[in-house]
Amino acid sequence: MKLPFRVLVLEDDEHALSGIVELLRDAGHNVTGAATYDAAKRLLAVSPFDLLVSDVRLRSFNGLHLVMQTRTDHPEIGVIIITGYDDPLIDMEAHRYHAQLVRKPIRPAEFLRTVNLPHYCPLLAERLAAIDADGLYLDIGRAWQQYRAAHAAAPSAQ
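Given the sequence above, the corresponding structure tokens read:
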């Protein structure tokens, strides 16, 4: 069972942005990249997303402001914060906003495992739990087991 997630990636470094977008697309997700805070904010206002991946330090804004706004406006969206800085305050902010924290440089296999964790994304958990192949309602535990089994058979990206 593999569901493509609708992912918005906010990263102001064009090389990092294209790399993350490509990695997530290769993993089967529907990905939209944004290079500016304003572009990401506009996209969140008009398009549904399952997951926001946001860098912290952007050229003119702090990505945590978008995380905070997303938690207020779209609490169902999962959030991953990415940063190249080793700042304990970022750890606290990630915890505060129920977000996963990924440090740069990003390790593809580890990052994809984080993207696929449903425990921080209520909508993802609901989508995994919704329906099995026979159209029967699944409880989240059984859905998670099926999801893990399906992904254990797939080769991991390094």
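The chain has one domain: 6-153. Try to locate this feature in the token string yourself.
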